[in-house]
């Protein structure tokens, strides 16, 4: 009987606790209030903000404070100074809180849970006074950046949670790759970027792409190219990420291709340099996968070498505007083009193209055949020449007779010879007939016969 009573009593206690939790342990109650739980832990639950009437009360010594559903847009953490025994503070489920009005005061707090707020930016000294802090939860906020000093200066910090924020994934965030700091990040694999160009992509992968890119970005004779990660896309099977990278080495006075470029470079800009030799496109395997190459405003005069280059079968954009190219064997490029299914744009404008009867006919056929790829077809013109009527004329509109001469209007030397030979034959036949007639009518032999002995 006694045992039963004790049982019933403990069930009743549990029920009371359960109800108590149901009211105070949830943030869903509508009223704005703080309530103390003194049973197991000294836990203060506040809904709608912290109430100041607890400040002067000497009887309350909470070790845990949970504050939720705060309406205001900023939060003042100074009150924790009044609770020296406090070791865990949660300010949660208040998406209107975007900032703290001041840094946290010096305090021996160990666990700080700031999940599901609307924090956008944290000043680097926000948590500096919390020298005993071991766990910091900043998940489900709107943070774009987190200064590495915040993590570095908290010497006791063991766990930090940062998933579900709007990480901008710019180079400042690369501390997440630091082994010492990174191992404190409990949810690093769930962190994703929030900026549009990397939206939804894992922070760790993006930061390691950025880090590699920085290390590999070419520096040539103290001049640096500008390398940027433009986009990250999933592979067709969604099993790995593919970086879309631009390496801009424009206007650096280079007279050769950079000997090495970052792996996975997609676009290479070499505009406005002094490059004349394009053989790295054939010989340097680093260039094989570069799909867009801009070589405008260089000194290139010869692209014959590209015949048979594997690169021609893979590229997407090839720009050779404003170089010194006069001609090239069109079949050499065509072979590559035929095998290339992703070819997108070609630029050939502002080169001093030769306009003569040997090169121009095949070149004109070539640019007309590929006119939907040659973006600057109206700039593909004959070289400037004072003495040529075709100077600076658009090659795709050039009449071939103007480079090769019009058929029949003028006689070529060979035609003249033919006419001469034909008239000689006619003359000889007529002479033969005349001689025959003379012989028949007068018996006179031609003069030439009388002279032959
Ligand atoms: C707390 O006590 C101080 C003086 O001890 C007083 O100035 C202050 O107004 C009190 N605060 C509240 C909220 O009662
Ligand atoms: C956030 O603030 C708006 C008014 O600015 C208010 O209507 C809303 O209820 C607040 N949300 C929360 C969760 O406090
Ligand atoms: C912070 O609070 C939320 C909501 O109560 C909880 O889900 C989460 O686990 C807490 N974080 C830590 C590190 O305890
Ligand atoms: C590199 O390019 C980016 C964007 O294209 C630009 O913001 C940055 O200033 C450039 N850096 C240098 C060193 O030119
Ligand atoms: C280049 O991309 C491949 C996947 O396409 C990846 O495995 C590799 O790590 C990348 N290299 C660098 C340096 O980012
Ligand atoms: C490449 O760099 C040059 C010179 O720094 C700059 O003028 C140009 O706008 C850049 N191009 C791109 C696409 O970033």
UniProtKB/TrEMBL annotation:
<dbReference type="InterPro" id="IPR050541">
    <property type="entry name" value="LRR_TM_domain-containing"/>
</dbReference>
<dbReference type="InterPro" id="IPR003591">
    <property type="entry name" value="Leu-rich_rpt_typical-subtyp"/>
</dbReference>
<dbReference type="InterPro" id="IPR001611">
    <property type="entry name" value="Leu-rich_rpt"/>
</dbReference>
<dbReference type="Pfam" id="PF13855">
    <property type="entry name" value="LRR_8"/>
</dbReference>
<dbReference type="InterPro" id="IPR032675">
    <property type="entry name" value="LRR_dom_sf"/>
</dbReference>
<feature type="signal peptide">
    <location>
        <begin position="1"/>
        <end position="24"/>
    </location>
</feature>
<keyword id="KW-0433">Leucine-rich repeat</keyword>
<dbReference type="GO" id="GO:0005886">
    <property type="term" value="C:plasma membrane"/>
</dbReference>
<keyword id="KW-0732">Signal</keyword>
<keyword id="KW-0677">Repeat</keyword>
<protein>
    <submittedName>
        <fullName>Uncharacterized protein</fullName>
    </submittedName>
</protein>
């Amino acid at each position: 009987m006694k045992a039963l009573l004790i049982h019933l009593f403990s069930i009743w206690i549990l029920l009371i606790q359960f109800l108590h939790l149901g009211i105070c342990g949830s943030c869903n109650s509508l009223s704005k209030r703080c309530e103390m739980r003194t049973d197991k832990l000294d836990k203060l639950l506040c809904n709608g903000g912290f109430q100041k009437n607890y400040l002067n009360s000497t009887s309350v010594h909470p070790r845990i404070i949970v504050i939720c559903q705060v309406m205001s847009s900023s939060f003042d953490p100074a009150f924790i100074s009044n609770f020296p025994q406090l070791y865990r503070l949660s300010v949660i489920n208040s998406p209107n809180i975007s900032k703290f009005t001041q840094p946290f005061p010096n305090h021996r707090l160990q666990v700080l849970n700031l999940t599901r707020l609307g924090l956008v930016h944290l000043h680097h000294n926000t948590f500096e006074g919390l020298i005993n802090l071991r766990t910091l939860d900043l998940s489900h906020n709107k943070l774009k950046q987190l200064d590495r000093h915040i993590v570095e200066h908290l010497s006791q910090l063991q766990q930090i949670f940062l998933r579900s924020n709007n990480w901008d994934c710019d180079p400042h965030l690369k501390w997440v790759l630091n082994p010492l700091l990174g191992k404190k990040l409990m949810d690093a694999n769930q962190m994703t970027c929030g900026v549009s160009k990397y939206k939804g992509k894992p922070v760790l992968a993006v930061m390691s792409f950025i880090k590699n890119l920085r290390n590999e970005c070419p520096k040539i004779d103290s001049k640096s190219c500008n390398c940027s990660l433009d986009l990250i896309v999933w592979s067709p099977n969604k099993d790995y990420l593919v970086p879309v990278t631009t390496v801009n080495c424009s206007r650096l006075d280079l007279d050769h291709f950079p000997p090495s470029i970052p792996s996975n470079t997609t676009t290479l800009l070499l505009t406005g340099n002094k490059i004349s030799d394009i053989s790295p496109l054939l010989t340097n395997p680093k260039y094989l996968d570069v799909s867009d190459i801009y070589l405008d405003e260089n000194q290139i005069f010869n692209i014959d070498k590209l015949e048979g280059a594997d690169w021609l079968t893979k590229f997407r954009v090839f720009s050779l505007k404003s170089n010194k190219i006069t001609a090239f064997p069109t079949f050499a490029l065509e072979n590559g083009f035929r095998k290339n299914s992703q070819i997108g744009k070609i630029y050939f404008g502002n080169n001093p193209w030769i306009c003569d009867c040997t090169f121009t006919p095949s070149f004109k056929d070539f640019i007309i055949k590929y006119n939907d790829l040659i973006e600057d077809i109206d700039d593909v013109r004959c070289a400037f020449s004072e003495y040529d009527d075709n100077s600076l004329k658009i090659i795709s509109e050039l009449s071939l007779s103007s480079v090769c001469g019009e058929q029949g209007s003028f006689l070529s030397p060979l035609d003249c010879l033919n006419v001469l030979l034909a008239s000689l034959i006619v003359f000889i036949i007529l002479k033969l007939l005349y001689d025959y007639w003379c012989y028949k009518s007068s018996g006179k032999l031609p003069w030439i016969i009388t002279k032959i002995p």
